[in-house]
Amino acid sequence: MSIILIMATWVLYGIILETWKGQTVGKMVMGIIVVKENGEPCDFLAALLRNVFRIIDILPQFYLIGFIVIALTEKKQRLGDRLAGTIVVKVKK
Fold first, then answer.
1. Are 52 and 80 spatial neighbours (Cβ–Cβ below 8 Å)?
2. What phi and psi values does residue 41 have, to the nearest 5 degrees?
3. Does pTM top 0.85 for this prediction?
4. Are 80 and 54 spatial neighbours (Cβ–Cβ below 8 Å)?
5. CA 37 to CA 57: how far, in whole Å?
6. Cα–Cα distance, 85 to 80 (Å, whole number)
7. Which H helix or E strand runs over 85?
8. How far apart are CA 42 and CA 88, in angstroms?
9. Longest dimension (CA), the chain
10. From CA 30, how far away is CA 82, in angstroms rounded?
11. Most CB atoms within 10 A, among 41, 56, 88, 92?
């Protein structure tokens, strides 16, 4: 039960912050933001998809599938980004 609660909190954290600001705290520190491929802000559905599919990206080892998919895609998207139609870009200063 604790693992399910931790995973749910982790997914909700990403969904809430990416819907609200397009960034988690880590993305803010790194100067990157999640946007839709057309440049619009990340909305709830896109944030939901990219964060739910993060669970697959982390398998079988720490983000191994995510790294492989990023390496094989032109826009350097992980599986969740491809399904949500989002990309991660640098914030303009």
1. yes
2. -60, 155
3. no
4. yes
5. 19
6. 8
7. none
8. 10
9. 43
10. 21
11. 88
Residue bearing tokens 């880590």: 26
Peptide bond into 60 cis (omega under 30): yes
User: For position 42, what pLDDT does the model report?
Assistant: 96
Q: Cβ(18)–Cβ(34) under 8 Å?
A: yes
Round to whole Å and give the CA distance between 40 and 67.
25
The model's pLDDT over 2-51, given as tens digits with 9 standing for 90+, comes to: 888 888 888 899 999 999 999 999 999 999 999 999 999 999 999 999 99
DSSP 8-state symbol, 34: E
Domain layout of the chain by residue ranges: 2-90
d(CA 80, CA 91): 20
Other Cβ atoms less than 10 A from the Cβ of 21: the count is 15
Other CB atoms within 10 A of residue 81 CB: 25
CA 93/CA 13 separation, integer angstroms: 25
Residue 17 β-bridge partners: none
The answer to whether the Cα torsion of 8, 11, 13, 15 is positive or negative is: negative
